[in-house]
Design brief:
Structural class: alpha/beta
Shape: globular
Oligomer: single chain
Helix content: 25-40%
Length: about 525
């Protein structure tokens, strides 16, 4: 069966669940998910088994009073149960709110208050302190460390659910932004947003039911949940679901050339780097891989070339946001430009706008990237003022500065909030990082501005060196002065073993600033 035979299904589906239901019925005996725990096979589900479990859990949740439009927090380790729960909520029409299971009490306190869930589904070990945050909240506790087939919740007795019909405008998912500056905001994604996003990605990356995906991304982020999980299952493909990212396990899975040989791998730059570090010493044949994608954080040009050399294929760099789904991608069968986020996806309108005047920039001018299209959220959850600030006459302000070349390939130069104003001049942190990262011996860097009496903001850099590199402050400063104005060069440099990042590999700039503050 090819994806063409399923095309009418996804073209007409109004919800993620109805689309998946049709695929499951057509693909009934085919493997849907193979779950590996610590690299060992634990559970496999066919499409018919997956659908049966989704429907069973939907019955149980509806019997617990969960209905269309209610928010349900998932604070679960990566597992098949997490996947099944997400789709069960989509069937009911409840709004799934997946959260990082590593969040601490202070983080959960804010998110529980903001999301106002009718139910929290969480690990058994977390129940006690979640009840301390909100004694009245409804909780279902599950231990996902148990084998999936042993989970007691599926032995519950319930009547067949009878959920309300869903429309494209009904909310299905809330993804919270990282909140690196200020409190996290919940981007509300509708069934229409989700189905459009899946359809777009499946088309441009040519994902079909012959594909096998090595899934090593978290399920609480739009990258792992929507770009990877949704697209592969809705295409009728096979997912090899890893419980966590372990580079050696990933290499073993990607190296397999059996019937279940992987054709796709989606990851963030930090994951690729760890995999490449191992492959430098143990090269392998990955010619069966047809698609390598990279996103959620910038990929260094040197890493682009290393992936091409060691995995035998150029990575497809792309860009997406919690609020918008995927927006840009390099073409899979055409020229890929290292450092570019690629071309705009179908039905997405793009403007490059002066962030102060709101006037469009001239050709190849740098400005804020504004978007308009069917994949974009219409609101932040319970934050009308934030929503109003983010939209201008229907255009979504991404907060990213960028430009496009004559061939309509887009480039992101920095985040507006990462622009450093030093001595009255605007400096892009990314521009300085690019120069530093090109120095032999530098592994990566993070440039920020910290308060300074003389400069207003002082440019500083945290740098990670390769293991055998020997570079000094003067070495870095001299190289920067060759390519940058003096006022763009870092006034202070520290060498660190790691740069603070979130789970998706994005640099936490506020945490980097703390490295320069004396205790």
């Amino acid at each position: 069966m090819t994806n063409n035979s399923l095309s009418s299904t996804f073209m007409n589906s109004e919800s993620i669940y109805t689309w998946l239901e049709t695929v499951c019925i057509k693909q009934h005996h085919k493997k849907a998910i193979t779950f590996l725990r610590n690299g060992m096979l634990e559970t496999e589900l066919t499409y018919s088994q997956l659908l049966a479990d989704i429907n069973k859990l939907a019955d149980i949740l509806q019997a617990r009073g969960i209905a269309k439009g209610q928010t349900v927090i998932l604070s679960l380790e990566k597992s098949i149960f997490c996947v099944v729960t997400h789709f069960a909520l989509q069937k009911i029409g409840a709004i799934c709110v997946p959260l990082n299971p590593g969040f601490k009490r202070s983080e959960m306190t804010y998110l529980i208050k903001d999301a106002a869930p009718s139910l929290i589904i969480t690990e058994t070990k977390k129940t006690k302190w979640i009840q301390q945050i909100n004694p009245d909240v409804n909780i279902i506790e599950v231990s996902t460390t148990q084998p999936y087939q042993n989970l007691e919740i599926f032995f519950s007795i319930s009547q067949k659910s009878n959920p309300e019909a869903l429309k494209p405008g009904d909310p299905g998912l809330i993804i919270y932004t990282s909140g690196t500056t200020g409190d996290p905001k919940g981007a509300v994604l509708t069934q229409g947003n989700l189905t459009h996003d899946a359809r777009n990605i499946m088309n441009i990356w040519q994902i079909d039911d012959s594909d096998v995906l090595c899934h090593t991304l978290p399920l609480f982020h739009i990258h792992g949940l929507c770009f990877a999980l949704h697209t592969t299952l809705l295409a009728g493909g096979h997912i090899i679901l890893l419980d966590q990212f372990q580079p050696k396990v990933v290499i073993d899975v990607l190296s397999t050339k059996t019937k279940n040989a992987c054709s796709m791998f989606m990851a963030v730059p930090a994951m690729y780097t760890k995999v490449m570090d191992i492959l430098e010493n143990q090269p392998n044949d990955f010619s069966h891989l047809r698609l390598l994608t990279c996103g959620s954080a910038p990929l260094l040009e040197s890493e682009f070339e290393r992936i091409k050399r060691l995995l035998g294929r150029e990575p497809v760099e792309r860009e997406g946001m919690s609020e918008t789904g995927m927006n840009f991608s390099n073409p899979i069968n055409d020229k890929k430009i290292p450092g570019s986020i690629g071309k705009a996806l179908p039905k997405l309108k793009v403007r490059i706008v002066d962030p102060d005047t709101f006037l469009d920039k001239n050709a190849e001018g740098i400005g804020e990237i504004w978007l308009k299209g069917p994949g974009i959220t219409s609101e932040y959850w319970k934050k009308p003022e934030e929503t109003q600030k983010t939209f201008v006459k229907g255009w979504f302000r991404t907060g990213d500065l960028g430009w496009a070349n004559k061939d309509a390939y887009y480039f992101i130069t920095d985040r507006i909030k990462h622009i450093i104003i030093t001595g009255g001049e605007n400096v892009s942190a990314k521009e300085v990082e690019t120069i530093i990262n090109r120095i032999d011996g530098v592994k990566e860097s993070a440039v920020v501005g910290i308060q300074d009496k003389t400069w207003g903001e002082k440019i500083v850099a945290a740098i990670v060196l390769h293991s055998k590199a020997q570079l000094s402050y003067d070495d870095i400063k001299d190289r920067c002065k060759e390519d940058l104005h003096d006022w763009k060069c870092p006034k202070q440099i520290i060498f660190v073993s790691d740069i603070p990042k979130n789970t998706m590999g994005k640099v936490l700039k506020e945490e980097v600033k703390k490295l320069f503050i004396q205790p």
